[in-house]
Amino acid sequence: MVKYSSKLKAEVVGEYLQGGTSMQSLSEKHNLPKRQVSFWIQKYRLSGVDSLKRKKLNEAFQLNLKLM
Fold first, then answer.
1. pLDDT tens per residue across span 20-56
2. Distance of CA 46 to the CA centre of its chain
3. CA distances (Å), origin 43, targets 15, 31, 48
4. DSSP H stretches of helix in the chain
5. What are residue 14's phi and psi, to 5 degrees?
6. Whole-angstrom distance, CA of residue 61 vs CA of residue 59
7. How far apart are CA 50 and CA 63, in angstroms?
8. Which terminus of the chain has fewer CB atoms gathered within 10 Å of its CB, N or C?
9. Phi and psi based region of residue 40 (left: phi greater than 0; alpha: psi -120 to 50; beta: remaining)
10. pLDDT, tens only, 2-21
């Protein structure tokens, strides 16, 4: 799975929201799938800029759980 930086996501969404640039041209310009660009824009509209940030999913487990 490819992971994109929050900076790239914000840049692409910002370009789209400024107007005059289609999702297709943004996907070609940044070498991204059009579906990915569409997904970022939708997430931004629903939840704001925080939705574009990567979330850490790897939680540290307690030592005693590792030994079981």
1. 899 999 999 999 999 999 999 999 999 988 888 877 6
2. 13
3. 15, 20, 7
4. 6-17, 23-29, 34-47, 63-67
5. -60, -45
6. 6
7. 32
8. N
9. alpha
10. 789 999 999 999 999 998 89
8 A C-beta contact, residue 57 and residue 15: no
Cα(9)–Cα(40) distance, integer angstroms: 7
For residues 6 and 50, what is the distance between their CA atoms, to the nearest angstrom?
Answer: 9
Residue 54 and residue 1 in contact, taking contact as beta carbons nearer than 8 Å:
no
d(CA 61, CA 40): 31
Instruction: Judge contact between 9 and 3, C-beta under 8 A.
Output: no
